[in-house]
């Protein structure tokens, strides 16, 4: 079983060690800095932010957690973002999602300075990702690509099926894979005959947000499966793939936890470092 696993925990440690070494070698300038903006007290967000701050500390990157009241107005939040945009000592800004319902997430993402867009969610960044001219990438798709390349999974000419069409995973990932000369099909949970469409793939990436959606009927023995799901069922954390049912039926698979999740944080911090380099050319 071990030789089938694609360990994001293992690769993220390698990436973070590389970043740590690069940051340790900065001698004639200030260190890179990220600011994480949180609105309210979402428990899942608290957990994710804790992991991000811990990773920053490990690699020597400066970090700040700006926690704002749940009832802050959109205008007040935009004012905070403008302050960060104008702060020359800040290299990366992320606004932790989800935001309260009275705040328009798209407006917030569009307001973050593209030169500080650590999450890679701004329309300008996403446009550059599509055109293959971007220096940074949405962190989860970036992490998925790194996992595939680390395991020497051939992308050129590969038949890739992505289940999930979100602006932060499915759509940017499709463009990034197309730019690697893969043949990409984007599906969703309403796709007709979904299992048969998925079963023909060389690489199946599931980011549908539906626990254990992917069963043995969706896979084949030569397939690489990337599980982006982060679901809680009966208090237990699980992905979109029914792991126990699928693992013996595929070539390679990411576990949940320990697969895509750790890579998202490592790639987010790599984005911040690259934004820092661009600013200090």
Could you please describe the fold and organization of this structure?
- The structure is a single chain.
- The protein is an alpha/beta fold.
- It folds into two domains: 30-115, Rossmann fold, CATH 3.40.50.10860; 139-260, NAD(P)-binding Rossmann-like Domain (Rossmann fold, 3-Layer(aba) Sandwich), CATH 3.40.50.
- 40% of the residues lie in helices and 16% in strands.
- The protein has ten helices and ten strands.
- β1, α2 (43-59) and β2 form a beta-alpha-beta unit.
- α1 (8-24) runs parallel beside α10 and α6 crosses α7 (170-178).
- The longest helix has 20 residues, at 260-279.
- It is globular, with a radius of gyration of 19 Å.
Beta-strand residue fraction: 15-25%
Please, what is the average pLDDT?
96
Could you tell me the CATH topology label of the largest domain: Rossmann fold
Secondary structure tally, helices? 10
Radius of gyration: 19 Å
Query: Helical proportion?
Result: 40-55%
Q: Looking across the biggest beta sheet, what order are the strands in?
A: 5-4-6-7-10
CATH homologous superfamily grouping of the largest domain: NAD(P)-binding Rossmann-like Domain
Assign the structural class, choosing from mainly alpha, mainly beta, alpha/beta, alpha+beta, or little secondary structure: alpha/beta
Write the layout of secondary structure elements.
Layout: H1 8-24, E1 33-39, H2 43-59, E2 62-68, H3 74-85, E3 92-95, H4 105-111, H5 123-131, H6 139-150, E4 159-163, H7 170-178, E5 183-187, H8 194-199, E6 203-206, E7 224-227, E8 231-233, E9 236-238, H9 243-246, E10 252-253, H10 260-279
Helix pairs in contact: 1-10, 6-7, 6-10
Pfam family, one: THF_DHG_CYH
Pathway: One-carbon metabolism; tetrahydrofolate interconversion
Keywords: Amino-acid biosynthesis, Histidine biosynthesis, Hydrolase, Methionine biosynthesis, Multifunctional enzyme, NADP, One-carbon metabolism, Oxidoreductase, Purine biosynthesis
């Amino acid at each position: 079983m071990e030789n089938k696993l694609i360990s994001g925990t293992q690769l993220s440690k390698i990436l973070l060690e590389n970043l740590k070494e690069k940051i340790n070698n900065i001698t004639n300038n200030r260190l890179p800095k990220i600011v994480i903006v949180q609105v309210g007290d979402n428990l899942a967000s608290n957990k994710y932010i804790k992991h991000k701050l811990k990773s920053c500390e490990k690699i020597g990157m400066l970090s700040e957690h700006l926690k704002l009241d749940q009832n802050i107005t959109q205008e007040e939040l935009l004012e905070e973002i403008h302050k960060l945009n104008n702060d020359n000592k800040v290299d990366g800004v992320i606004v932790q999602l989800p935001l309260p319902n009275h705040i328009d997430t798209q407006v917030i993402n569009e307001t973050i300075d593209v030169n500080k867009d650590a999450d890679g969610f701004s329309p300008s960044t996403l446009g550059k990702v599509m055109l293959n001219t971007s220096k940074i990438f949405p962190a989860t798709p970036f992490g998925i690509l790194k996992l595939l390349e680390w395991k020497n999974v051939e992308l050129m000419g590969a038949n890739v099926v992505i289940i999930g069409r979100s602006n932060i995973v499915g759509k940017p990932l499709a463009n990034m894979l197309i730019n690697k000369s893969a043949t990409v099909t984007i599906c969703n949970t309403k796709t007709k005959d979904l299992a048969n469409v998925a079963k023909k793939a060389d690489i199946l990436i599931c980011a549908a947000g539906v626990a254990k959606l992917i069963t043995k009927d969706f896979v084949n023995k030569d397939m690489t499966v990337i599980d982006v799901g982060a679901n809680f069922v009966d208090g237990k954390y699980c992905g979109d793939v029914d792991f126990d049912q699928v693992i013996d039926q595929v070539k390679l698979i990411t576990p949940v936890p320990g697969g895509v999740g750790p890579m998202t944080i490592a790639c987010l911090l790599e984005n911040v470092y690259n934004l820092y380099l661009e600013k200090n050319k």
